[in-house]
């Protein structure tokens, strides 16, 4: 292995014993082999460490944390800090890559040598059925794409983001790469999306490869996205202001719209999970986004039982 690999692959691990062999194997079986694999054991209490130690590949570097951090964000930040590679690629411990993923991402990096952020398509898998993500389905016949912050936010408003954690790659030399994930804000979910927003708001672009790089397994154990409490910490005005330092007025207005939609989404998700949800009215972004804010303000008074009924009806309509 070279002293400086092209990719540093970071996998945070917290109680993923039944799945970690699959994710590690999918990295080691890549057609592009110039990488190191950084595993951060986030104080697992199951057999995750024993499963990791079954692998003897010299490219694997193992780091231990003594206390698990919410969402694995501190573990990912540690992985970035320890990375030797030019590019840091992320993979969740319960997901897997297709063998050609790093090869395609390497080709993309060579085609766009000045970029700092890359993504591609992925599949979700549940009950043995795999589905491609929405952005990929709309753009799979395109060649590689360069996506601006404006287009990124517009796609986000349509729930068609071009990146997800297990296909995201960031250049380590990016000024926002260190402490990329919000480990200090107490959020247990949503930190990945916040990290990608940080990259987009600073660099104003992402490049996207039209290949399917990973499988997101929706039925894994100990899934943060299914269990974590709902809170609005990451959508607070202070975090919003930190993102807008280099944005145009048009981009700021779009970001407000994006934040308002996320506030409403998190609130509804909390209701569906029977979780204690905060009043999101106090977080709304009214300036330059008055119509959305007014609608969401009145929506917030909707009885929780009615929200659940409407969601069930929407789900039935989608299925038919």
UniProtKB/TrEMBL annotation:
InterPro entries with a match to the protein in the record: Glyco_trans_2-like, Glycosyltransf_2, Nucleotide-diphossugar_trans
Domain Glycosyltransferase 2-like: 8-133
Keyword terms: Transferase
GO MF, one annotated term: transferase activity
Pfam family, one: Glycos_transf_2
Protein name in UniProt: Family 2 glycosyltransferase
Organism for this UniProt entry: Algoriphagus marincola HL-49
Record lineage: Bacteria, Pseudomonadati, Bacteroidota, Cytophagia, Cytophagales
